[in-house]
Amino acid sequence: MCDGAVAVFDAMQGVETQSETVWMQANKFNIPRIGFINKLDRTGSDIETTIESVKRRLKVEPLLINVPCDDTNQLNGLIDLPSMMHFEYKDEMGQYVDMEPIDQSHKLFDRAIHFREKLVEQLSNFDDELADSYLSGTEPFQIHEELINHAIKKSITGQHAVALFCGSALKNKGVQPLLDGVIKYLPSPSASTSKVLADFKIKPKELCALAFKVVNDKEKGLITFFRVYSGVLQNRQKIMNANLGQVERVLSLMRVRANEMQVLEEIKEGDIGAIIGCKHIRSGDTLINETGDAIKLSGVDMPPPVFFCSIEADMSRDKQELE
Ligand SMILES: Nc1nc2c(ncn2[C@@H]2O[C@H](COP(=O)(O)OP(=O)(O)O)[C@@H](O)[C@H]2O)c(=O)[nH]1
Ligand SMILES: [Mg+2]
Prior knowledge:
- There is one protein chain.
- It contains 8 helices and 18 strands.
- It is of the alpha+beta class.
- Strand 4 (66-68) and strand 5 form a beta hairpin.
- Helix 3 (109-124) packs across helix 4 (128-135).
- It is elongated.
- The chain starts with a strand and ends with a helix.
- Guanosine-5'-diphosphate binds at residues 10, 38-39, 41-42, 168-170.
């Protein structure tokens, strides 16, 4: 369903059990990931221990993309290693940031190079071009940013490594570079490696969407969440459920932001939305145009039910209340 994921680690705790479970699930679906080492503003938080636990519990090579400017928990700034930029936070809540390149005369140059060299060394195991450049004696600070970024993207797409960003969500620090990292390192929807699409050649521009979750809302009734893999899904259009061979009309098309919903006229390729008013669509069904090719995406794995039971109203007048 998703093309990439951001794993948030607590720098006080390292990798927690729930994170490990979700991580294994992402491995199964071949989803590239980046990670955020959070809570680095707290005394006792520790990058090294977090990295060690990522290595040990998730069995993946942790690549530090940025590092704090010192080893205190002040988090006054970050050094971005691929670009050799210094982000200096001017206030406690990370609202004002100064950015400057770290050249050889900069006070943070030695620290930046120490970590950049480590990153380049790790990446050399995954990317031949970078390895050639490094082994032929190019100084770590002279290796091109693009070459490093390319190697990062390649190593996380192959699931060998995870790119880690440092920061504190509470203090708004490191969040912006993390979001930039989503753009730089995770695949765009058109370059998705998701298993859902693996077996199909979807015709460009033809509607193909996957209903990945159906919930019953007290007020709105059945809400079908879907993701559009190709084409456009329009409000009030008729859609074919390729799994059931059944046509339904979209009564209301919504964009969902947490628990807010906003009516939209269309939802395009790569986006997630919700339909209100469809009665028959189930989780895992493929939605196409009424006249489209009947492709079925691989859907959603449902664990077998542990038991069955049905609840009925005693009297027909209670039926509505029960529903
Ligand atoms: N000091 C600090 N606290 C944080 C940060 N991010 C979240 N928290 C706090 O952590 C608590 C939530 O726990 P958290 O570990 O984020 O959620 P979990 O995913 O449910 O374990 C809340 O009290 C947050 O205010 C951070 O960057 N720094
Ligand atoms: Mg926690």
